[in-house]
Design brief:
With 351 residues, the chain is α+β, with helices and mostly antiparallel strands. Among the domains are: 3-30 and 78-169, Ku70, Chain: A, Domain 2 (Beta Barrel), CATH 2.40.290; 187-202 and 244-261, no CATH class. The protein is built from six helices and eleven strands. A seven-stranded mixed barrel has the order 1-2-8-11-10-9-7. The chain has a two-stranded antiparallel sheet with strand order 3-4. It has a two-stranded antiparallel sheet with strand order 5-6. A hairpin with a 2-residue loop joins strand 1 and strand 2 (14-22). The chain is extended and about 70 Å long. Belongs to the prokaryotic Ku family. Residues 251-351 are annotated as: Disordered. InterPro entries: DNA_bd_Ku70/Ku80 (IPR006164), Prok_Ku (IPR009187), SPOC-like_C_dom_sf (IPR016194). It comes from Streptomyces griseicoloratus.
Length: 351
């Protein structure tokens, strides 16, 4: 991989010579501008305004246009002597947890390659220190005519650097969220969670650019003189009137696409509003209610009367049995006394 910048990482008093290499590449298909009548290429020529002639790339330099229109030439030598330490140095200024970095700030990604054998030891030291600390390094560097902010982190056995926007370059999300107050019900959140669980995770390596593949098919067909493949008609999205129904259908469709059995889901219905009787409306006093009340009172009276009768009968039977027991006891006592008298009389006669 060709380096696009050479410099050094400043890690305290440690200097690590490195080369900056692009970590990403674009696979998008680019087009040329053509003249539609004859297919001729449309080119932009670089012409000097003073001499009115086309110039080569070697004759082109940099210049700053002042407020009055004056052009001030700036050479590469002028840029290499900028009075800042980051002209050719990636200066580490802090180490912070990776969660502190807002993804909105992240931009282009680069690999930092060790430049030469002397850089191997300090390069490895910085890499292992970042690994063990579970932190990232925040650095400042100059690239393409401006000072930039970067984040250094470990990727495999290499150190990668992500260009960061300056904090004041990230716009606040004002006026983006809906203004109207919206309440989300627990049932809707449950269905949203079920949809996320059904979709699950995915290996990012399985994702690919379908648009580019379709574009390549069209180009190949045109080159072969064939008709381009027909585009399938997209299904027209229906107007979502019920969010709950849309979520349920989404969960069902996601499960079917994965070949899963559709689970039985409870149907969520919206209850009709409860009717409230007006205060002026009198309560119903139909015959059913009065008849029921009278029947209940009559039954209660009958129950009380039968309870009194049974109590009286039990009292009478108790008294009778008590009287019988007393009579039997008195008869037994009299019989005992008679037998005792007879025994006494017989003893006296014998004497």
């Amino acid at each position: 991989m060709r380096s696009i910048w050479n410099g050094a990482i400043s890690f305290g008093l440690v200097s690590i010579p490195i080369k900056l290499v692009n970590a990403t590449e674009s696979h998008s298909i680019s087009f040329r501008q053509i003249h539609t009548e004859d297919g001729g290429r449309i080119r932009y020529r670089k012409v000097c305004e003073l001499e009115d002639r086309e110039v080569t790339q070697g004759e082109i330099g940099k210049g700053y246009e002042d407020a009055d229109g004056t052009i001030i030439p700036i050479t590469d030598d002028d840029l290499s002597h900028l009075p800042i330490p980051t002209a050719r140095t990636i200066e580490i200024v802090a180490f912070v947890p990776e969660e502190r970095i807002d993804p909105l700030q992240m931009g282009a990604a680069y690999y930092l390659a060790a430049s030469g054998a002397p850089a191997a030891k300090p390069y490895t030291l910085l890499r292992e220190a970042l690994k063990r600390s579970n932190r990232v390094a925040i650095a400042k560097y100059a690239l393409r005519g401006r000072e930039r902010l970067g984040m250094l982190r470990v990727v495999g056995d290499a150190i990668a650097m992500h260009g960061l926007l300056w904090p004041d370059e990230v716009r606040a999300p004002e006026g983006v969220a809906p203004d109207a107050g919206v309440t989300v019900r627990d049932q809707e959140l449950d269905l949203a969670d079920a949809l996320m669980d059904t979709l699950g995770e995915i290996d990012l390596d399985d994702l690919h650019d379908e648009y580019r593949e379709a574009l390549e098919e069209v180009i190949a067909a045109k080159a072969a003189g064939e008709a381009p493949p027909e585009t399938p008609e997209p299904s027209a999205p229906g107007k979502v009137l019920d969010l709950m129904a849309a979520l349920e259908n989404s969960v069902r469709a996601a499960r079917e696409s994965r070949g899963e059995e559709p689970a039985e889901e409870a149907e969520v219905r919206t209850l009709p509003p409860r009717k409230t009787a007006s205060r002026g409306t009198p309560k119903e006093t139909g015959g059913k209610k009065s008849t029921s009340t009278a029947a209940k009172k009559t039954a209660a009276k009958k129950t009380a009367a039968s309870a009194k009768k049974s109590t009286a009968k039990s009292d009478q039977s108790g008294k009778k049995s008590a009287a019988k027991g007393t009579a039997k006891k008195s008869a037994a006592k009299s019989t005992g006394s008679k037998s005792t008298t007879k025994k006494t009389a017989s003893r006296r006669r014998s004497a």
